[in-house]
Structure formats: structure tokens, C-alpha cells
Amino acid sequence: MQSRGAGPSPPRAFLPRPAPVAACLQASQLGWAGLDGENIGNCPFCQRLFMVLWLKGVKFNVTTVDMTRKPEELKDLAPGTNPPFLLFNKELKTDFIKIEEFLEQTLGPPMYPHLSPKYKESFDVGSDIFAKFSAYIKNPRKEANINFEKALLREFQRLDVYLNTPLPEEIDQDSVEDITVSKRKFLDGDHLTLADCNLLPKLHIIKIAAKKYRDFEIPADMTGVWRYLNNAYACDEFSHTCPADEEIEHTYASVARKMT
């Protein structure tokens, strides 16, 4: 069991993790746990909501539950439904997007910070990268691999360009120096936002699984992407909610198609 953040407890919520076990947060969240039945398993949606709660400064606990034998509490609460879901004032929310929206609307200033990004592009820029990765990792045809890899690299290049392009607030109209490369830490500035909570868990999965099963690495010359990742790994809200590499590798062992 782990505690995160501080402040009053939020509504009761349940989150998933795609390995046979799940985790219960004192929000109270249930999600799929890892191979050992205790640690965090691999689920970007689960990590996304963990990050939101941590960034909000909400106190929460994680308890693992074996999802191969669903607890009676889950069966009674949401029969036929898998996490993530959230229960608040007897109202059940089963869509993780709606859960995130609920947390952003309910846990707001002055007690909790807003996490919505300032720029729409911060949400849009990485929207296709995970789909391109999924197609790449599932492709079994060796002759087609280069095209799938190029498609993934194009999405990384798009992300890199965005991260290296200065945001409007970085440009001082009165300065004699032209800022040509952004120095910001994250997608929308120097603070993590909902856009980062969405994209970073996916980038972590890509980084681990693509290396393991396709010997793919994010090019070193994509300085914007690497600056972004290095800054993210330095943040507890991200690094401490990441599943172990072995969890990701196990998840994709049956997904990554052997090329012939």
C-alpha cells in the first residue's frame, strides 16, 4: 500500500492495469496490478489517472487486487464492467476520459490546481503516436517493417518539432535576441498538465516495448523529445507511477508479432 500527495480524500474510484491483477486507490482506485500481484502493472490509462491525482495533491493509496478473480465489491458495483471506473455520490463513471474530466472539474482552485493545458496543440501533437506504435509492433511482415517504422518516426518528428518550437510566452517581443529553440520542460510549459498525463505513459511504453521487440530507439537527434522525457523522468508524479520494464515487456510479449 502506498500513499501519494496530501489533502482530503477524493471520491471512490477504480482503475485498471492489464496484467492479471489490479490496484485500488484511496480515491479508491482499482486497477490491474503487475506480475507479482502487488506492484503497478502496465496500463497507460491507469497511470494517466494516477498522475492526475498526484498532481492535484490528493492523498491516495494503492492496493492490489487479483482481477482474474474479481472481488465481490466490483461484481456488485459494476457487473460486467472492467476498470477504470469511479463511484461518487452513488453515481458510477466508467469512462476514463470522463473520470479525468470529473477530477479536473471537481478538484479545482483554490484547493487544487487546474491541469488543463493552455494550448490545444499540446493535446493534439501526440494523438497518433501510440496508434503508429501499435501498428509497428504488431506487424509480422519483415518487408513492411520499414514503412511502419517510418510512420512512427514521422509522429516522433512532429512531436520533436513542437517541443523545440518556442511557445508564445517564451518569446520576448522587446528582446534583441531571437529565441529559435524552446527551453520548456513539458508539452505546454514548465509544469505538467493533462496533456502530459495522457502522452507520457504512452511514450514510456513505446520506449520500452519497441526497444525490446523491434530494437527501435528514439533517435538521439530528436533533442526536443529527449529533453521532454528526461524532464519527465525527473518528476515523481511520472517516474513513480511507471510500471517496471518487465511489466511492459510481458504485456507486449503476446502482442509483438515475430517478423518473417
From TrEMBL:
Species of the source: Mycteria americana
Entry-linked PANTHER family: CHLORIDE INTRACELLULAR CHANNEL PROTEIN, CHLORIDE INTRACELLULAR CHANNEL PROTEIN 6-RELATED
tRNA processing recorded as keyword: no
Protein name: Chloride intracellular channel protein 2
Membrane topology term: Single-pass membrane protein
UniProt record similarity statement: Belongs to the chloride channel CLIC family.
Function according to Swiss-Prot or TrEMBL: In the soluble state, catalyzes glutaredoxin-like thiol disulfide exchange reactions with reduced glutathione as electron donor. Displays weak glutathione peroxidase activity. Can insert into membranes and form chloride ion channels. Membrane insertion seems to be redox-regulated and may occur only under oxidizing conditions. Modulates the activity of RYR2 and inhibits calcium influx.
Catalytic activity: chloride(in) = chloride(out); tert-butyl hydroperoxide + 2 glutathione = tert-butanol + glutathione disulfide + H2O; cumene hydroperoxide + 2 glutathione = 2-phenylpropan-2-ol + glutathione disulfide + H2O
